[in-house]
Backbone:
């Protein structure tokens, strides 16, 4: 009798696995969205990548944003973030970069725990990720409602991948890097679009890479504008929305700073998107932030990080 019960429990746990890595508050917001969203299979090189696509409610053709998820995978928050950017007037494509790499060939939703998904993301092959992003960008150019202006944004692990993608994709209008590390300096000469950085003041691991990126981008003659949001922690775009009461390392002070940074960063990215969409590159006057453009590194022992200790160098 005991064995059938154990099997039943195992099946129940497996069926509820996605909830282990869900952000229920983000899921609830997404479910209330009036915008059309759909899943699209993107095929390339014998591989299929499932992508979450959200459309804005607008009269005219819209630009497309490729959104790259955190190291946690395409959970509820990056999909909710995609919907927020769609609400600002953009078609957003968020590929599940774990497509085919999960149990039984599944994607993000097939992993039983956040740790399992996080480990799988950190081990993804960089060339495969770039090919998946290219497939998403190529698909963007075929969407009838697209005006063929292409942007990329990424968060955490995805922030680094968005910076790297700018070195690979020549038709980008701009890249928006949220607390992600830069690509090799030698690759920056290949960048053809402006890169805008969004960083947390209490994120020494990532902030330590900013001065080198500034120097390398300047030497390559490229546009790079990093802005640091003081007092905020790594992952502030997600944490700044999370309504969960502060606890543990997420002090009330940190929670307030994350919320403020999230609001100001969202205003900055949408302002830039609107200007870049409506004008040629030469005509754009980039808005400055009230924050300093040069990062000030403030290292706190309790600063929250979205990367686990399992992450290896180069996977950020």
Residues:
């Amino acid at each position: 009798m005991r064995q059938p019960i154990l099997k039943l429990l195992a099946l129940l746990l497996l069926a509820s696995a996605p909830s282990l890595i869900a952000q229920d508050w983000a899921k609830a917001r997404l479910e209330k969205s009036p915008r059309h969203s759909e899943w699209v299979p993107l095929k390339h090189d014998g591989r299929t990548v499932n992508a979450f696509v959200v459309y804005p409610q607008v009269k005219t053709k819209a630009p497309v944003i490729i959104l790259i998820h955190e190291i946690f995978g395409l959970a509820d928050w990056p999909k909710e973030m995609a919907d927020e950017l769609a609400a600002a007037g953009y078609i957003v494509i968020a590929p599940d970069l774990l497509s085919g790499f999960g149990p039984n060939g599944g994607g993000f939703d097939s992993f039983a725990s956040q740790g399992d998904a996080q480990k799988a993301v950190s081990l993804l092959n960089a060339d495969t990720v770039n090919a998946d992003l290219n497939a998403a960008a190529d698909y963007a150019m075929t969407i009838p409602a697209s005006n063929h202006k292409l942007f990329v944004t990424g968060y955490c692990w995805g922030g680094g991948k968005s910076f790297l993608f700018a070195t690979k994709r020549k038709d980008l209008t701009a890249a928006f890097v949220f607390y992600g590390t830069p690509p090799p300096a030698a690759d920056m000469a290949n960048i053809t679009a402006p890169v805008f950085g969004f960083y947390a003041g209490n994120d020494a691991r990532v902030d330590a890479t900013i001065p080198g990126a500034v120097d390398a981008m300047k030497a390559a003659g490229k546009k790079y504008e990093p802005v640091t949001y003081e007092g905020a922690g790594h992952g502030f775009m997600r944490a700044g929305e999370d309504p969960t009461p502060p606890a543990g390392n997420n002090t009330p002070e940190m929670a307030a700073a994350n919320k403020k940074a999230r609001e100001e960063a969202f205003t900055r990215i949408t302002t830039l998107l609107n200007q870049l969409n409506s004008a040629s590159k030469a005509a754009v006057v980039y808005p400055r932030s009230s924050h300093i453009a040069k990062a000030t590194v403030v290292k706190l022992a309790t600063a929250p990080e979205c990367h686990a200790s399992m992450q290896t160098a180069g996977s950020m």
Summary: Strands lie at 37-44, 47-54, 62-68, 91-95, 146-155, 172-178, 195-202, 224-233. Confidence is low (pLDDT under 50) at residues 1-20, 284-305, 307-316.
